[in-house]
Automatic annotation (TrEMBL), chain A:
<feature type="domain" description="SKP1 component dimerisation">
    <location>
        <begin position="119"/>
        <end position="166"/>
    </location>
</feature>
<dbReference type="InterPro" id="IPR016073">
    <property type="entry name" value="Skp1_comp_POZ"/>
</dbReference>
<feature type="domain" description="SKP1 component POZ">
    <location>
        <begin position="4"/>
        <end position="69"/>
    </location>
</feature>
<protein>
    <recommendedName>
        <fullName>S-phase kinase-associated protein 1</fullName>
    </recommendedName>
</protein>
<dbReference type="InterPro" id="IPR036296">
    <property type="entry name" value="SKP1-like_dim_sf"/>
</dbReference>
<dbReference type="InterPro" id="IPR016072">
    <property type="entry name" value="Skp1_comp_dimer"/>
</dbReference>
<comment type="similarity">
    <text>Belongs to the SKP1 family.</text>
</comment>
<dbReference type="Pfam" id="PF03931">
    <property type="entry name" value="Skp1_POZ"/>
</dbReference>
<dbReference type="InterPro" id="IPR016897">
    <property type="entry name" value="SKP1"/>
</dbReference>
UniProtKB/TrEMBL annotation, chain B:
<feature type="domain" description="F-box">
    <location>
        <begin position="64"/>
        <end position="97"/>
    </location>
</feature>
<protein>
    <recommendedName>
        <fullName>F-box domain-containing protein</fullName>
    </recommendedName>
</protein>
<dbReference type="InterPro" id="IPR036047">
    <property type="entry name" value="F-box-like_dom_sf"/>
</dbReference>
<dbReference type="Pfam" id="PF00646">
    <property type="entry name" value="F-box"/>
</dbReference>
<dbReference type="InterPro" id="IPR032675">
    <property type="entry name" value="LRR_dom_sf"/>
</dbReference>
<dbReference type="InterPro" id="IPR001810">
    <property type="entry name" value="F-box_dom"/>
</dbReference>
């Protein structure tokens, strides 16, 4: 089985099958570029991902492994309205996969899925973050994202004033 | 004792080398001080990915600092109300929304034609949701915002639709007829207070009523109040071009605008504005533009645009990434399009990646030969990634006995490879042309072909025939034919777009192995 070595920003190496890696648009391009530039067709490609740390890269590869037999969604799926097929593609496994995660990790997964061009993962993670904002009060959002208000003096009142006009019209 | 002056490093004293410095000796408290000063979200993300020590220090702020980077991916899922609500969560979320939300709401999606088709949209829009129908509403807004020193425009975008219609709109609402000076005074007051906050400004004029057209000085004065402008669209609705006369009065008006909008990177100029206006703006800020949209009527005025001897001729736009020339009308001469291309070729655009060269939407005369498409491809062969040329094909050149496939000049043009072109957008009428195969295969990394204005040309007589069956059959034949022609190993998809109504009809994607 042809393998590829994927290295995270903090130096952790993951050995995965090329078939699995090619389900990421970015890794697929990197493997093809390596093939073209390498004289030895048997050489094992090594890809360094400088923007993704080991913990996040492991989660992306884990998700790819679980979904390795799914049809690959094109990057511009539903380009008319800009939305992905999050609900359609979300399985019970996906829900269990995301459930224990801190929202900071989910945000990092969004950036990683976007960088590696993994459409399905990008969709479900975006949908999860969206669900923690939609229809919630400001305090509920702060609790969900573990944030504290850092507005000083009348800054919050100013923002309320700016928003009031937007919302009421 | 005073320290000897010689020990103070001067500009000429080399600083000690840091190449052998052990950064792990720096205590976490010092790193914390440094990292707390990182404002840019991307730099934060890079630092966060660097090592465990940095992650421990930055973990507390992670969701607030990553939000601006995540926002472009999630904003489509969020309602306007939720986006506005999120501005109150914390300062970083507020600035994230204001500075990182894609500005495509009024910019990419506003088509002046929509204002005619749907009169409900006849309004000044203050995105996301604000609509004003009257001067009195602007006055009321300014009164309410008297104590507001912040930014009331969540996307930093402002659209002024020049609303001077006495007719009721589609909802039956009678719009207030404005006094032109009163209207401008209201615009100016608004920009005077909040102009600093605006990054994207769209000003749409109605040219059907020459009595109510804005004065030349208006736009000048409004732009003066927008010092942080990044995107500017000056456009119009209506077919009358009275504006050209008005705008002929001054050439150098933009040059004398102080301060110049130094952050302007995106500019669209509608047909209301003469080539003098376009030339004046381009001469002042052309060098910094990344996007330029321009109407055919402006660029076709041979007198000014692309005339090397003219003082306002634009010779180089080093940063231009996307050029969109729309509403071209080649009815006035068979070789008109070629002369325009030659003028375009005189302009140095070393970083052009996207080029649209499109006819008037309903123009019957929107036809060009393949030679014009090849000229465009070759002109920017080393940089162009996307080319949109959705013209109907005109087979004959010069005279009716002359086919392009026999033309040595066309054959020579075919020999130049397009090394970066990935997306080619052409008319469906070009599918049967004998040189199509050579055109497609000169693009060595071609990924997508989009065929515009699809119609069932092969089956004109559809009486007694199942129309859907014929349509499916014709789509299948077209896809098979095109797939047989393209030899690029990267070729992934074909799109077919219907002529009328204009919509995507079918997408073929290469099956994954």
């Amino acid at each position: 089985m042809a393998l590829v070595r994927v290295i995270s920003s903090d130096g952790a190496a993951f050995l995965v099958s090329q078939r699995l890696a090619k389900r990421s648009g970015k890794l697929k391009t990197e493997i093809e570029t390596f093939r073209k530039s390498s004289d030895n067709s048997e050489a094992q490609p090594e890809i360094r991902i400088v923007t993704i740390r080991a913990e996040i890269l492991r989660l992306v590869l884990q998700w790819l492994q679980q979904h390795q037999n799914d049809p690959v969604l094109p990057a511009n799926q539903n380009e008319q309205d800009g939305r992905g097929d999050a609900e359609m593609g979300q399985s019970q496994w996906d829900r269990d996969f995301l459930a224990p995660m801190d929202l900071g990790i989910v945000m990092e997964l969004i950036l990683a899925a976007n960088h590696l061009e993994v459409k399905g993962l990008l969709d479900i993670t975006c949908k999860l973050v969206e669900s923690k904002i939609t229809g919630r009060t400001v305090d509920e959002i702060r609790t969900a994202f573990k944030l504290k208000s850092d507005f000083k003096g009348n800054e919050e009142e100013q923002t309320r004033l700016e928003n009031r006009w937007c919302v009421e019209n | 004792m005073a320290m000897a002056l010689t020990s103070i490093p001067t500009k000429n004293t080399p600083l000690p080398s840091t190449s052998n410095f052990n950064f792990s000796r720096i205590p976490p408290e010092a790193w914390k001080e440094v990292l707390n000063r990182v404002d840019d979200p991307q730099t934060f993300h890079n630092c966060y990915n660097t090592c465990e020590v940095f992650r421990d220090l930055l973990n507390i702020d992670r969701t607030s600092r990553l939000f601006p980077l995540v926002l472009p991916h999630i904003h489509d899922y969020l309602s306007e109300k939720d986006i506005i609500n999120s501005r109150r969560v914390c300062k970083r979320w507020k600035t994230g929304i204001e500075n990182h939300l894609p500005l495509n709401i009024p910019w990419k999606n506003v088509n002046p034609d929509d204002f005619i088709i749907n009169p409900v949209k006849e309004r000044w829009v203050f995105p996301l949701t604000n609509t004003f129908y009257k001067v009195s509403q602007i006055t009321q807004f300014l009164t309410e915002m008297e104590n507001c020193s912040g930014n009331p425009f969540p996307t930093r975008s402002l659209l002024f639709y020049h609303l001077l219609h006495p007719e009721p709109n589609a909802n039956g609402a009678q719009l207030e007829v404005q006094d032109r000076d009163e209207l401008f005074h209201a615009f100016r007051s608004l920009l005077h207070k909040f102009g600093n906050e605006v990054w994207s400004f769209v000003f749409i004029t109605d040219t059907d009523n020459p009595e109510l057209l804005p004065l030349h000085a208006w736009v000048q004065q409004m732009l003066k109040l927008l010092p942080n402008l990044k995107k500017l669209r000056l456009d119009n609705v209506g077919d009358e071009l009275h504006g050209l006369k008005i705008w002929d009065e001054g050439w150098d008006w933009f040059q004398h605008l102080k301060p110049l909008p130094l952050h302007l990177i995106s500019l669209h100029i509608g047909q209301f504005y003469s080539s003098r206006v376009a030339g004046s703006i381009l001469n002042a800020v052309g060098g910094q533009l990344e996007y330029l949209g321009i109407e055919g009527t402006v660029i076709e005025e041979e007198k000014y645009f692309g005339t090397p001897t003219h003082p306002w001729f634009i010779r180089e736009m080093p940063n231009l990434n996307e050029l969109k020339i729309t509403n071209l009308n080649f009815s006035r001469g068979m070789s008109n399009e070629i002369s325009l291309l030659k003028r375009l070729a005189r302009c140095r655009l070393p970083n052009l990646e996207k080029l649209s060269y499109a006819p008037k939407r309903h123009a019957r005369e929107g036809q060009i030969p393949f030679r014009a498409v090849l000229l465009l491809m070759n002109q920017f062969a080393t940089t162009l990634v996307e080319l949109h040329v959705p013209f109907q094909l005109r087979r004959m050149v010069q005279n009716e006995d002359f086919e392009e496939e026999d033309d040595p000049e066309v054959m020579a043009l075919l020999g130049v490879p397009s090394t970066k072109l990935k997306i080619l957008d052409i008319s469906y009428s070009m599918v049967d042309h004998p040189i199509l195969e050579s055109v497609l295969n000169k693009c060595v990394v071609l990924e997508k072909v989009r065929l515009q204005k699809f119609q069932m040309v092969r089956s004109r007589d559809l009486r007694g025939v199942n129309r859907n069956f014929v349509l499916r059959n014709e789509v299948r034949q077209t896809i098979e034919k095109l797939n047989g022609l393209v030899k690029s190993t990267k070729f992934k998809s074909i799109e077919l777009w219907n002529k009328s109504p204009e919509r995507k009809l079918y997408t073929w994607r290469r099956p994954l192995i």
